[in-house]
Design a protein that fits this description.
The chain has about 110 residues and is mainly α. Helices cover about 55% and strands about 10% of the residues. The chain has three helices and two strands, in the order αβααβ. The chain starts with a helix and ends in a 5-residue tail after the last strand.
Length: about 110
């Protein structure tokens, strides 16, 4: 069983139901992150987006387990999930920098390797 599947199974077994920014996909391996209210052309908006991405990743990767090994798995999952969302975030930031219409939501998904 992959780490991702194990974490997902544990989350479901513990009754976890991730939700973020008032919108969650029915599949617990993805969360919608609201971006419409952020000015991604500004440093503050980019910092807020990073915080939302990390929060979504923490919710997706949370197992509720407390051992050192479990915490290490969660930390790796969070890092990989945030890294997986970076191309989407970079695209949104580039669009904002060019003055283009900004997407309202980003989907953050568990890393395929997690």
């Amino acid at each position: 069983m992959t780490t991702r599947a194990a974490i997902l199974a544990l989350t479901l077994a513990l009754g976890g139901s991730p939700a973020f920014a008032a919108s969650a996909d029915a599949d617990t391996s993805r969360i919608a992150v609201r971006t419409a209210d952020l000015d991604l052309a500004s440093a503050r908006g980019r910092t807020q987006l990073d915080a939302r991405l990390k929060s979504a990743a923490r919710q997706l990767c949370r197992t509720g387990l407390r051992s050192v090994a479990d915490r290490a798995i969660e930390a790796q999952c969070i890092a990989e999930t945030v890294a997986g969302a970076q191309p989407q975030a970079a695209n949104a930031i580039a669009q904002a920098a060019r003055g283009e219409a900004q997407m309202a939501l980003m989907m953050v998904a568990l890393s395929p390797r997690a």
